[in-house]
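Researcher: Structure for this, please.
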Amino acid sequence: MHAAPPDRAERLRLLRILLLGATILGLLTAAQHFVVMQATAEIPEWRTVGHALSRDLPFWYLWVLAAPVVVLAVRRFPLQRDRLATAIGAHLAIAIVMILCHAVPLLLAHRALGYPTPDGPLFAVYVQNILYRLTNGLFGYAILFGAVVAWDYHARLRQRELLSSELSRQLTEARLQALRMQLNPHFLFNTLNTVAMLARHGDTTRAVGMLAGLSDLLRYVLEEAPPQEVRLAQELAFVERYLDIERARFPDRLRAVIDADPDTRDALVPNLILQPLVENAIRHGVARRAAAGAVNVRARRQGDLLELLVQDDGPGLQEGNGDGVTPASGIPLSSGGIGLSNTAARLAQLYGERARLVLEDRPGGGAVARVLLPFRPAPAT
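Model: Predicted structure, C-alpha cell format:
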C-alpha cells in the first residue's frame, strides 16, 4: 500500500480527532440530560439512556460532518488583527447559516432514532424550535471553530518546521558544495603552488595574503549553525576573498569587479548565494578563453526587488541551454551544474514565486546569471 499524501493524512487525523471529541461531548451531555430526566416529571418511558444518547450524539456528529465548511471558512476569513472585525462578522454569518441547515438533519435524526419530538409537520416543528437551535448551535459552532483553528495552527507550525529543516539541509549542501570546490585537489594544489612560488621569489606579503584568504574562506564555510540569510555586504566580502585567491593565481588572466549600489549592501540575501554563480562564471567563462577574461558582480535595487548579476565575457551558453527566462525551480543541470540547481531550489524554498534565477547569453558575448529576490533590509543591530 502507498502512503497517503500528507494533506490527506492530516485531514484524516483531524477527522479522527473531531469524531473522538464529538463522542466525548455527546456522552457528557447525554449523561447530563439523563440525570435531568430522572429528576423531572417526564414520561417514564422517556427516561432511558437510549433517549439521552439519541438526543445528544447526533447533534455533535452532524457538526463533525460540517467540518470541511468550517475549515474553508477559517482559511478564507482568518482571525488577523487588521481584519478582525470582518472575520468575526463573516464567521457569525456562516455560523447562523450552518445552524439553520444543521437543525434539519438533526430533527430528522431525532425522529428516526425515536427521540420524542413535537407532533406536526416537519417544517412547523422546525420553525417552532429554531430559536432554541440557534442558541445550542452557536455553542456547537464555537467548539468546532476552536478545534479547527487549533488544528490549522498546528499544521502550519509543523509545515514551518519542515520548511526550516529543508532549508537547513539545503544550506548544508551549499556549504559542502562550496567546500568541495575550495578543497578539491586541483584548486588546493594550485593555490599552495602559487604560495610556494611567491615565497621562492621573496614575495612573502602576497603569499601570506593568499594563505590568510584561504583560511578566511574555510572559516566562513565551516561556521557552525550559519544563518539562512546574511547581509549582502557580508556575502560580497566572502566573494571578494574567493576572487582574491583566483586573481593571485591568474594575475594576467582574470579581471574581477564587484559593484554594489550603496542602498543594497544591507539587504538580506541567502547565505552563499553568489559563490556558486561566480565559480560557474570563472569555470565556464574565463577558463574557456585563451586571452584574459572578466567577471563582474553587480547588485542593484529595482523597486521592491533586489537584482544580483554575475557576468562573464566567455563564449556564452552552449547551444540549447540559453533559452531566456528560466524559473527558479527549473534550471537544467547542463546549463550550470549542481551548484546552480541547488541555488535555484534554495530561492524557490525561501521566496517561492517571488524569486527567480535566470541564466542567459549576454549581449555582446559571454553569459549572465541574474538573481531576483524580494528586497528586505536587515534589521538594525
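Researcher: Any notable elements?
Model: The mean pLDDT is 80. The longest helix spans residues 130-183.
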